[in-house]
Write a structure and sequence with these properties.
about 130 residues; alpha+beta; Pnp Oxidase, Chain A; 6-stranded antiparallel sheet; about 35% helix
Length: about 130
C-alpha cells in the first residue's frame, strides 16, 4: 500500500469504487500498520489509529500525485499505461489522523543484536 505522511496524517490513495471507501464513509475511523521486516529480529513498525477524512476532487489529485512520486519517477506518470491505471484507481485520498500511535523496534533488542552479531538469521530477500 502506497502512503505518505503529511503533517499529522497518513495519506493513502484509493478509489471511490472500493469497499474501503464505502466502509470509511460509514465509519470514519481506521488503523494503519506500517512495518519493515528483515532477517532475524530486524523488525520495526508503527500502528496508527485515528479519525479518517476522505479527500476528493482537485485536492485528492494533488495529494495522490505526491504519494505516487514517492514511489515512481516523474517520467512514469507520463506513460499512458501508468497514468491510466493511477488516474482510474486513485481519485480519493484517505487521511488517517494520527490520534494514537504505538511503535516497536526489535532490531535494537538484546536478542535482535545477538542474532545480527552472530549472523544467525536467514535472508528474506532470496
Amino acid at each position: 500500500m502506497w502512503f505518505l505522511r503529511i503533517d499529522n496524517d497518513i495519506c493513502i490513495p484509493t478509489s471511490h469504487h472500493k469497499h474501503k471507501y464505502r466502509n470509511l464513509r460509514a465509519r470514519p475511523r481506521a488503523s494503519v500498520m506500517i512495518d519493515i521486516s528483515r532477517a532475524g529480529l530486524n523488525l520495526k513498525g508503527v500502528l496508527i489509529r485515528g479519525h479518517v477524512e476522505l479527500v476528493e476532487g482537485e485536492e485528492a489529485r494533488r495529494i495522490n500525485r505526491m504519494i505516487h512520486l514517492k514511489y515512481i519517477m516523474p517520467e512514469a506518470i507520463n506513460d499512458a499505461n501508468v497514468s491510466s491505471y493511477l488516474s482510474k484507481g486513485d481519485d480519493v485520498t484517505v487521511k488517517v489522523h494520527m490520534d494514537h500511535m504505538i511503535s516497536w523496534n526489535l532490531t535494537d533488542s538484546k536478542a535482535g543484536k545477538a542474532l545480527h552479531l552472530g549472523g544467525w538469521s536467514h535472508s528474506l530477500d532470496s
